[in-house]
């Protein structure tokens, strides 16, 4: 009798597919680690492709010339394919078709100005090509099956942040994947979904981790592994902080909280579906695939070392009622309603007698809309260009380390968490 094979979901982000050498490295990991498992491989756009597509989309949407950056993107993908497939044609039929579709979409957009409020919808139709192109190349490099995930991962119409229709998605995935996985590894796109009407949606920037979790949940996979360019889940981003430490094992709960506060290592929505089905998540380095990494799963902790999370591009907005009355629940209801309507997310908030302050991610467009909604009722002050720091499991030394020499514009402390907003400054060395 044939042994029942375990099913693993691997997720490879942009850095792990950034060029031909990286894709060869990925292929090595898949070959060595997947001999005994069925394997679903979720892949993001290559390198900085998503950012490049955002720029190209912006040009097309505003009727400008997008040809030069599109040509660069095209050349980049073709060069990687050329290097990988050597004597075979760089563009197989699929790649050529995708590149042609992308150009056609952009040309239509440039020539027929679309209404401003359809921006997010068009964004998803264009930005999704990063993942489509990357998976096309990776699947070919692995000799694996290519799966278009969009007809399976059903979302609503919340463009750029599609909300998963779980029952439909689970049904679709179970209908299609097991047979494919029996035949061999499957490569599919992170970050994408589709509406019932067949339009493409995206799941939020850096959403490929979430995709891996969605598939794992639907297939009741044995484990998910996110392959990154860091050694595992660290207590801080080594780009900004010195002396980082790796957590060898950490609970779902702690990880969700860190992601919520902005730790960029895992997309915040990833953990819940895994926790519901008790599927462990491994974070490992694609540069050192045999090293231990981090295991995220069920469990409780003694004291964990402090985790430092930095979010830039913040905006502090303060609302005062015009007649100097106290901020009431009725006022708060209006303010929260407006924030939700313009989709500004609150990262920290505080109430005082006559004013209410929130720290949010800055977006000139959303802030302008918010001011339009609330200006009549409130006097509003705001500061942009701020940073928000969160220390989870803080101790006095960790607070001293981060706050030294800074003016704190807003601060807050709970039993486990210390947060403050301050002016951004030039980074001079690591914190
Ligand atoms: N390529 C998308 C992004 O850069 C999704 C991802 O990387 O997870 O946001
Ligand atoms: Mg990416």
From TrEMBL:
Gene3D superfamilies: Acetylglutamate kinase-like (3.40.1160.10), Aspartokinase, catalytic domain (1.20.120.1320). Residues 7-285 form the Aspartate/glutamate/uridylate kinase domain. Its EC number is 2.7.2.4. It catalyses: L-aspartate + ATP = 4-phospho-L-aspartate + ADP. It comes from the Bacteria. InterPro entries: AceGlu_kinase-like_sf, Asp/Glu/Uridylate_kinase, Asp_kinase, AsparK_Bifunc_asparK/hSer_DH. It is an enzyme of class 2 (transferase). Keywords: Amino-acid biosynthesis, ATP-binding, Kinase, Nucleotide-binding, Transferase. SUPFAM superfamilies: Carbamate kinase-like. Pathway: Amino-acid biosynthesis; L-lysine biosynthesis via DAP pathway; (S)-tetrahydrodipicolinate from L-aspartate: step 1/4; Amino-acid biosynthesis; L-methionine biosynthesis via de novo pathway; L-homoserine from L-aspartate: step 1/3; Amino-acid biosynthesis; L-threonine biosynthesis; L-threonine from L-aspartate: step 1/5. GO terms for molecular function: aspartate kinase activity. Pfam families: AA_kinase. NCBIfam families: asp_kinases. Belongs to the aspartokinase family. This is Aspartokinase. It comes from Hymenobacter lucidus.
């Amino acid at each position: 009798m044939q042994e029942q094979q375990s099913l693993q979901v691997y997720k490879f982000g942009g850095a792990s597919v950034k060029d031909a050498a990286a894709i060869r490295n990925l292929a090595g990991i898949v070959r060595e680690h997947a001999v005994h498992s069925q394997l679903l491989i979720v892949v993001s756009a290559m390198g900085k492709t998503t950012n490049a597509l955002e720029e190209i989309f912006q040009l097309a949407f505003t009727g400008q010339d997008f040809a030069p950056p599109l040509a660069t993107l095209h050349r980049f993908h073709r060069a990687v394919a050329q290097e990988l497939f050597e004597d075979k044609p760089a563009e197989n039929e699929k790649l050529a078709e995708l590149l042609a579709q992308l150009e056609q979409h952009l040309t239509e957009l440039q020539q027929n100005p679309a209404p401003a409020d359809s921006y997010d919808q068009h964004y998803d139709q264009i930005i999704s090509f990063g993942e489509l192109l990357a998976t096309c190349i990776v699947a070919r490099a692995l000799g694996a099956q290519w799966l278009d995930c969009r007809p399976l991962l059903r979302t609503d119409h919340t463009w750029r942040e599609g909300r998963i229709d779980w029952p439909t998605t689970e049904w679709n995935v179970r209908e299609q994947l097991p047979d494919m996985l029996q035949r061999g590894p499957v490569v599919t796109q992170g970050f994408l979904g589709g509406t019932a009407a067949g339009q493409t949606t995206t799941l939020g920037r850096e959403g490929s981790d979430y995709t891996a979790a969605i598939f794992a949940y639907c297939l009741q996979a044995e484990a998910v592994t996110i392959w990154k360019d860091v050694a595992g889940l660290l207590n801080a981003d080594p780009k900004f902080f010195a002396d980082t430490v790796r957590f060898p094992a950490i609970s779902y709960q702690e990880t969700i909280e860190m992601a919520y506060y902005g730790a960029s290592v895992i997309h915040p929505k990833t953990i819940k579906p895994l926790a519901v089905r008790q599927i462990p998540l491994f974070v490992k380095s694609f540069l050192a695939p045999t090293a231990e990494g981090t295991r995220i799963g069920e469990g409780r902790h003694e004291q964990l070392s402090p985790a430092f999370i930095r979010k830039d591009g913040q905006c502090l907005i303060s609302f005062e009622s015009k007649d100097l009355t106290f901020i009431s629940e009725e006022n708060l209801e209006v303010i929260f309603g407006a924030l939700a309507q313009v989709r500004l997310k609150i990262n920290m908030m505080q109430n005082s007698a006559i004013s209410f302050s929130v720290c949010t991610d800055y977006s000139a467009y959303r802030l302008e809309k918010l001011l339009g909604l609330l200006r009549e009722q409130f006097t509003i002050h705001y500061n942009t260009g701020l940073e928000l720091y969160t220390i989870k499991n803080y101790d006095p030394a960790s607070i001293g380390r981060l706050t030294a020499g800074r003016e704190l514009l807003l601060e807050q402390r709970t039993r486990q968490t210390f947060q403050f907003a301050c002016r951004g400054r030039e980074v001079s060395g690591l914190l």
